[in-house]
Amino acid sequence: MRMYSIDVCTLPVNIAGLPAVSVPCGLSDGLPVGLQIIGPHFSEGNILNIAYSYEGNTEWSKFVPVMN
Asked: Would the pLDDT of 42 be above 70?
């Protein structure tokens, strides 16, 4: 059960069998945050196009956090 509590944001999508992709979209307290794009069954191409377009129009995919 502990394993499922860690994946609270992705578990429902995986159980439902929906296609999803996560792209970087910002920072929170200096740590990267992801935007999860979820689509209906068999819409993999659409969500990948949305993710590709988002990454092409933002700079977050190029951001490299400083590691101490």
From this structure: yes
